[in-house]
Design a protein that fits this description.
By secondary structure, this protein is α+β, with helices and mostly antiparallel strands. It is built from 10 helices and 14 strands.
Length: 284
Protein backbone atom coordinates (compact mmCIF):
# COMPACT_ATOMS: atom_id res chain seq x y z
CA UNK A 1 0.00 0.00 0.00
CA UNK A 2 2.94 2.31 0.61
CA UNK A 3 4.54 1.80 -2.79
CA UNK A 4 2.71 4.61 -4.58
CA UNK A 5 3.40 7.04 -1.75
CA UNK A 6 7.11 6.21 -1.79
CA UNK A 7 7.26 6.94 -5.52
CA UNK A 8 5.73 10.33 -4.83
CA UNK A 9 8.39 11.07 -2.18
CA UNK A 10 6.02 11.29 0.80
CA UNK A 11 7.63 11.59 4.23
CA UNK A 12 8.08 8.26 6.04
CA UNK A 13 5.96 9.39 8.99
CA UNK A 14 3.14 10.46 6.66
CA UNK A 15 3.33 7.15 4.78
CA UNK A 16 3.12 5.13 8.00
CA UNK A 17 0.17 7.18 9.22
CA UNK A 18 -1.76 6.76 5.96
CA UNK A 19 -1.01 3.03 5.69
CA UNK A 20 -1.99 2.38 9.30
CA UNK A 21 -5.28 4.26 8.85
CA UNK A 22 -6.11 2.40 5.64
CA UNK A 23 -5.17 -0.96 7.18
CA UNK A 24 -7.46 -0.27 10.14
CA UNK A 25 -10.37 0.60 7.83
CA UNK A 26 -9.82 -2.55 5.74
CA UNK A 27 -9.04 -4.93 8.60
CA UNK A 28 -5.48 -5.50 7.41
CA UNK A 29 -3.50 -4.33 10.45
CA UNK A 30 -2.38 -7.85 11.35
CA UNK A 31 -1.20 -8.55 7.79
CA UNK A 32 1.00 -5.54 7.02
CA UNK A 33 4.24 -7.51 7.32
CA UNK A 34 3.13 -10.31 4.99
CA UNK A 35 4.26 -10.81 1.40
CA UNK A 36 1.56 -10.78 -1.33
CA UNK A 37 1.89 -14.55 -1.82
CA UNK A 38 0.91 -15.09 1.81
CA UNK A 39 -2.39 -13.21 1.42
CA UNK A 40 -5.74 -14.69 0.45
CA UNK A 41 -7.66 -13.49 -2.61
CA UNK A 42 -9.93 -11.32 -0.49
CA UNK A 43 -7.01 -9.81 1.40
CA UNK A 44 -5.28 -8.94 -1.87
CA UNK A 45 -8.41 -7.17 -3.05
CA UNK A 46 -8.47 -5.16 0.18
CA UNK A 47 -4.81 -4.23 -0.34
CA UNK A 48 -5.72 -2.93 -3.81
CA UNK A 49 -8.44 -0.77 -2.22
CA UNK A 50 -5.90 0.38 0.37
CA UNK A 51 -3.62 1.74 -2.34
CA UNK A 52 -6.42 4.09 -3.39
CA UNK A 53 -7.34 5.03 0.17
CA UNK A 54 -3.81 6.04 1.21
CA UNK A 55 -3.64 8.47 -1.71
CA UNK A 56 -6.83 10.13 -0.47
CA UNK A 57 -8.15 9.90 -4.02
CA UNK A 58 -11.27 12.00 -4.78
CA UNK A 59 -12.59 9.28 -7.12
CA UNK A 60 -12.14 5.51 -7.10
CA UNK A 61 -12.16 3.67 -10.44
CA UNK A 62 -12.69 -0.07 -10.01
CA UNK A 63 -12.47 -2.19 -13.14
CA UNK A 64 -14.10 -5.56 -12.39
CA UNK A 65 -12.26 -5.94 -9.06
CA UNK A 66 -14.08 -9.16 -8.12
CA UNK A 67 -13.91 -11.02 -11.43
CA UNK A 68 -11.12 -13.40 -10.37
CA UNK A 69 -12.65 -14.37 -7.02
CA UNK A 70 -14.77 -17.44 -6.33
CA UNK A 71 -18.52 -17.02 -5.89
CA UNK A 72 -18.54 -17.06 -2.07
CA UNK A 73 -15.71 -14.54 -1.81
CA UNK A 74 -17.38 -12.25 -4.37
CA UNK A 75 -20.45 -12.03 -2.13
CA UNK A 76 -18.27 -11.18 0.89
CA UNK A 77 -16.24 -8.58 -0.98
CA UNK A 78 -19.38 -6.94 -2.42
CA UNK A 79 -20.52 -6.29 1.13
CA UNK A 80 -17.08 -5.03 2.18
CA UNK A 81 -16.83 -2.60 -0.74
CA UNK A 82 -20.35 -1.33 -0.03
CA UNK A 83 -19.49 -0.74 3.65
CA UNK A 84 -16.25 0.99 2.64
CA UNK A 85 -18.15 3.28 0.28
CA UNK A 86 -20.61 4.21 3.03
CA UNK A 87 -17.74 4.96 5.40
CA UNK A 88 -15.58 7.02 3.04
CA UNK A 89 -18.42 8.48 0.92
CA UNK A 90 -16.01 8.70 -2.03
CA UNK A 91 -17.34 8.89 -5.58
CA UNK A 92 -16.74 5.46 -7.11
CA UNK A 93 -16.99 4.35 -10.74
CA UNK A 94 -17.34 0.58 -10.72
CA UNK A 95 -17.06 -1.34 -14.00
CA UNK A 96 -18.68 -4.78 -14.07
CA UNK A 97 -20.33 -7.27 -16.40
CA UNK A 98 -22.11 -8.82 -13.42
CA UNK A 99 -25.57 -7.27 -13.15
CA UNK A 100 -25.90 -8.61 -9.58
CA UNK A 101 -22.93 -6.48 -8.51
CA UNK A 102 -24.44 -3.45 -10.22
CA UNK A 103 -27.88 -3.95 -8.67
CA UNK A 104 -26.64 -4.56 -5.12
CA UNK A 105 -23.90 -1.93 -4.92
CA UNK A 106 -24.80 1.04 -7.11
CA UNK A 107 -26.60 4.28 -6.35
CA UNK A 108 -26.92 4.80 -10.10
CA UNK A 109 -26.30 2.37 -12.93
CA UNK A 110 -25.11 3.17 -16.45
CA UNK A 111 -26.03 0.29 -18.75
CA UNK A 112 -23.86 0.15 -21.87
CA UNK A 113 -23.86 -1.99 -25.00
CA UNK A 114 -21.32 -1.84 -27.83
CA UNK A 115 -19.84 1.31 -26.32
CA UNK A 116 -23.16 3.18 -26.21
CA UNK A 117 -25.15 4.18 -23.15
CA UNK A 118 -28.53 2.43 -23.12
CA UNK A 119 -29.94 3.78 -19.86
CA UNK A 120 -28.91 5.65 -16.71
CA UNK A 121 -30.91 5.28 -13.52
CA UNK A 122 -31.17 3.88 -10.03
CA UNK A 123 -31.21 0.08 -9.69
CA UNK A 124 -34.99 0.11 -9.26
CA UNK A 125 -35.45 2.35 -12.33
CA UNK A 126 -33.45 0.16 -14.70
CA UNK A 127 -35.15 -2.94 -13.30
CA UNK A 128 -38.75 -1.71 -13.22
CA UNK A 129 -38.71 0.66 -16.21
CA UNK A 130 -36.13 -0.53 -18.77
CA UNK A 131 -35.93 1.76 -21.80
CA UNK A 132 -35.27 -1.04 -24.29
CA UNK A 133 -35.11 -4.79 -24.71
CA UNK A 134 -31.35 -4.97 -24.08
CA UNK A 135 -31.62 -3.34 -20.65
CA UNK A 136 -34.66 -5.47 -19.80
CA UNK A 137 -32.82 -8.68 -20.66
CA UNK A 138 -29.53 -7.70 -19.02
CA UNK A 139 -30.89 -6.61 -15.63
CA UNK A 140 -32.56 -9.30 -13.54
CA UNK A 141 -31.83 -12.90 -12.64
CA UNK A 142 -33.22 -15.08 -14.01
CA UNK A 143 -33.52 -12.96 -17.14
CA UNK A 144 -36.79 -11.52 -18.40
CA UNK A 145 -38.86 -13.82 -20.62
CA UNK A 146 -39.42 -12.50 -24.15
CA UNK A 147 -42.32 -13.53 -26.36
CA UNK A 148 -42.73 -12.61 -30.02
CA UNK A 149 -46.44 -11.84 -30.22
CA UNK A 150 -49.14 -10.36 -32.43
CA UNK A 151 -51.38 -7.65 -30.98
CA UNK A 152 -54.92 -7.19 -32.25
CA UNK A 153 -58.14 -5.91 -30.67
CA UNK A 154 -56.55 -5.80 -27.22
CA UNK A 155 -55.31 -9.40 -27.34
CA UNK A 156 -51.80 -10.85 -27.59
CA UNK A 157 -51.23 -14.13 -29.41
CA UNK A 158 -48.13 -15.96 -30.58
CA UNK A 159 -47.38 -18.25 -33.51
CA UNK A 160 -46.64 -21.20 -31.21
CA UNK A 161 -50.20 -21.38 -29.83
CA UNK A 162 -48.93 -20.81 -26.30
CA UNK A 163 -50.04 -17.23 -25.66
CA UNK A 164 -53.53 -15.74 -25.76
CA UNK A 165 -53.75 -12.84 -23.32
CA UNK A 166 -55.97 -9.81 -22.95
CA UNK A 167 -53.99 -6.61 -22.41
CA UNK A 168 -55.12 -4.34 -19.51
CA UNK A 169 -57.11 -1.32 -20.65
CA UNK A 170 -54.48 1.32 -19.84
CA UNK A 171 -51.72 -0.42 -21.74
CA UNK A 172 -54.00 -1.40 -24.61
CA UNK A 173 -54.82 2.31 -24.99
CA UNK A 174 -51.11 3.13 -25.40
CA UNK A 175 -50.61 0.34 -27.94
CA UNK A 176 -53.63 1.47 -29.92
CA UNK A 177 -52.61 5.14 -29.88
CA UNK A 178 -49.13 4.25 -31.11
CA UNK A 179 -50.53 2.26 -34.04
CA UNK A 180 -49.66 -1.25 -32.88
CA UNK A 181 -53.12 -2.73 -33.43
CA UNK A 182 -52.68 -5.51 -35.98
CA UNK A 183 -48.87 -5.52 -35.61
CA UNK A 184 -46.18 -7.75 -34.16
CA UNK A 185 -44.25 -6.73 -31.05
CA UNK A 186 -42.18 -8.25 -28.24
CA UNK A 187 -43.73 -8.96 -24.87
CA UNK A 188 -41.40 -9.03 -21.86
CA UNK A 189 -42.45 -10.65 -18.57
CA UNK A 190 -40.18 -11.17 -15.58
CA UNK A 191 -40.25 -14.68 -14.04
CA UNK A 192 -41.61 -13.35 -10.73
CA UNK A 193 -44.57 -11.78 -12.58
CA UNK A 194 -45.82 -15.19 -13.69
CA UNK A 195 -48.14 -16.59 -11.03
CA UNK A 196 -49.66 -19.95 -10.22
CA UNK A 197 -51.60 -18.93 -7.10
CA UNK A 198 -55.31 -19.62 -7.33
CA UNK A 199 -56.20 -16.11 -6.12
CA UNK A 200 -54.31 -14.49 -9.02
CA UNK A 201 -55.77 -16.86 -11.60
CA UNK A 202 -59.29 -16.11 -10.39
CA UNK A 203 -58.68 -12.35 -10.43
CA UNK A 204 -57.16 -12.26 -13.94
CA UNK A 205 -58.77 -15.16 -15.87
CA UNK A 206 -58.11 -13.47 -19.24
CA UNK A 207 -54.34 -13.44 -18.59
CA UNK A 208 -53.90 -17.17 -17.95
CA UNK A 209 -52.16 -19.88 -19.97
CA UNK A 210 -51.86 -23.63 -19.67
CA UNK A 211 -48.32 -24.91 -19.24
CA UNK A 212 -46.30 -28.06 -18.80
CA UNK A 213 -43.37 -28.13 -16.38
CA UNK A 214 -40.15 -29.32 -18.05
CA UNK A 215 -37.60 -28.66 -15.29
CA UNK A 216 -38.10 -27.72 -11.62
CA UNK A 217 -35.45 -26.16 -9.42
CA UNK A 218 -36.25 -25.94 -5.72
CA UNK A 219 -34.12 -23.14 -4.24
CA UNK A 220 -35.23 -23.03 -0.64
CA UNK A 221 -37.82 -20.28 -0.32
CA UNK A 222 -38.61 -20.22 -4.05
CA UNK A 223 -38.77 -22.47 -7.08
CA UNK A 224 -37.71 -21.94 -10.68
CA UNK A 225 -40.05 -23.63 -13.12
CA UNK A 226 -38.95 -24.03 -16.73
CA UNK A 227 -42.17 -24.57 -18.64
CA UNK A 228 -43.74 -24.71 -22.08
CA UNK A 229 -47.08 -23.41 -23.33
CA UNK A 230 -47.62 -24.96 -26.75
CA UNK A 231 -44.12 -24.57 -28.24
CA UNK A 232 -43.37 -21.42 -26.22
CA UNK A 233 -40.71 -21.84 -23.51
CA UNK A 234 -40.27 -19.56 -20.49
CA UNK A 235 -39.28 -19.44 -16.81
CA UNK A 236 -41.48 -18.75 -13.78
CA UNK A 237 -40.21 -17.89 -10.30
CA UNK A 238 -42.76 -19.05 -7.75
CA UNK A 239 -43.03 -19.65 -4.03
CA UNK A 240 -41.52 -22.96 -2.91
CA UNK A 241 -45.00 -24.01 -1.82
CA UNK A 242 -46.02 -23.84 -5.50
CA UNK A 243 -43.35 -26.36 -6.49
CA UNK A 244 -44.43 -28.68 -9.30
CA UNK A 245 -42.68 -31.79 -10.55
CA UNK A 246 -41.52 -32.09 -14.18
CA UNK A 247 -44.36 -33.25 -16.36
CA UNK A 248 -47.02 -31.47 -14.30
CA UNK A 249 -49.80 -29.66 -16.17
CA UNK A 250 -50.61 -26.33 -14.50
CA UNK A 251 -52.07 -22.90 -15.19
CA UNK A 252 -50.14 -19.65 -14.99
CA UNK A 253 -51.30 -16.07 -14.87
CA UNK A 254 -49.24 -13.28 -16.46
CA UNK A 255 -49.25 -9.97 -14.60
CA UNK A 256 -49.57 -7.76 -17.67
CA UNK A 257 -49.78 -4.63 -15.52
CA UNK A 258 -46.08 -5.21 -14.84
CA UNK A 259 -45.22 -6.57 -18.29
CA UNK A 260 -43.16 -4.71 -20.88
CA UNK A 261 -43.90 -4.13 -24.56
CA UNK A 262 -41.07 -3.53 -27.04
CA UNK A 263 -41.16 -2.34 -30.61
CA UNK A 264 -40.05 -5.24 -32.78
CA UNK A 265 -37.78 -3.08 -34.96
CA UNK A 266 -36.34 -0.44 -32.61
CA UNK A 267 -36.52 -2.66 -29.46
CA UNK A 268 -37.56 0.46 -27.49
CA UNK A 269 -40.11 0.14 -24.68
CA UNK A 270 -43.44 1.32 -26.00
CA UNK A 271 -44.87 2.21 -22.58
CA UNK A 272 -41.72 4.02 -21.38
CA UNK A 273 -41.61 5.99 -24.64
CA UNK A 274 -45.20 7.07 -23.99
CA UNK A 275 -44.29 8.10 -20.43
CA UNK A 276 -41.37 10.17 -21.71
CA UNK A 277 -43.81 11.95 -24.01
CA UNK A 278 -46.27 12.42 -21.11
CA UNK A 279 -48.86 10.25 -22.83
CA UNK A 280 -49.08 7.62 -20.10
CA UNK A 281 -49.49 7.70 -16.32
CA UNK A 282 -46.42 6.65 -14.28
CA UNK A 283 -48.19 3.52 -13.03
CA UNK A 284 -49.10 2.33 -16.54
Amino acid sequence: MAFGLKLRKYEKADIKKRVDEAAKILGLTDYLDRKPAALSGGQRQRVALGRAIVRDAPIFLMDEPLSNLDAKLRVTMRAEIAKLHQRLNTTTIYVTHDQTEAMTMADRIVVMSMGEVQQIGTPSEVYDTPKNKFVAGFIGSPAMNFFEVHYENGVLTDANDGINLKVPEGRAKILNEDGYDGKDLTLGVRPEDIHSEEAFLETFPEATVSAKVVVSELLGAESMLYVTSGKTEYVAKVDARDYHKPGSEIKFGFDLNKAHFFDKDTTLSIVEKAKDENRAPEHA
